[in-house]
C-alpha cells in the first residue's frame, strides 16, 4: 500500500485578539472571525479551535487547530506555497495528497477528506500569505470519510491570520523523542505533549510524528509517578503506532514503560519504553516498538 505524504502536526502556540476581524462568504451569510481563529461548522454546530499554528514550507502548507479539553484536532495540509484554491483528496505525483483531517479522541472519531485519492472531496482556498507578519488566511469545506465508510459534511471553514513558521515541523520547546520500529529508527519531525481531560479522566499524550502521518503515541495517566509500568490495550499506559491516516495498531498487554521523572509543577515528563503493537480488532501485522525514550514538556 502506498504511503501518501500528508503532514500531521500538533504545535502549541496561540494568541487570540479581537481586532481586525475578517469576513468571508458562508453558505447563506457573511461569517466574521478574529485574527488567530480557525473554525468550521459540522453537525449543526460551529467549532473554534483555541490553539492554532501553521507552517509554510517550500512545497507544503500545514495549518493546525487543537481543542485540548475536548480532544479535538483539525489539520489542513496543502501541497503548495502560494495563494489559490486547491482540491482535497486527490493524489498528485502518486504521493502528495492535500487533505483536511478532523480527530475527536473523546469519541474515537477520525474524518478525512479523502476516499479513493482520485475524487475531490472539498477545497481549501488560501487567500493571503502575509510574509511580513508571517500570517496565513483562507477558507475551506470538505466531506470527511471515516474508516467505516461513513461521511460527514464540514462547511464554512475559515482561518484568519494564523501565525506560521518556516521551519520543518519544529518540536514544542526542547522536546526529544527516539524509538525504533522493527529495528528501523523512527525519524520523527516533531514531538509534542498535551494534557487531555475527557469525561472526568485526565491523561498526558506524548506524540512523535512524521510528515506522512506516521506517529508513535504514548498515553499515560495524568498523575503517573516515577516507576515501571506495563502497557495495556484499553487503558493507560497505552502505546499506539499509526502507519497512515487510516491504519493504526495499539500496544498489547505487556511491554515496559519506565517513567524516570514527572515534574507536575513544570509539566515535564521523561521516560523509556518498548511494546508490541497489533491491530485492535482485525487481523494484520504486528510491529515491535523498541529503544524508545522521550523528554517532553506538555501543555
Automatic annotation (TrEMBL):
Record PROSITE patterns: PROKAR_LIPOPROTEIN
Protein name: Uncharacterized protein
Organism of this sequence: Snuella sedimenti
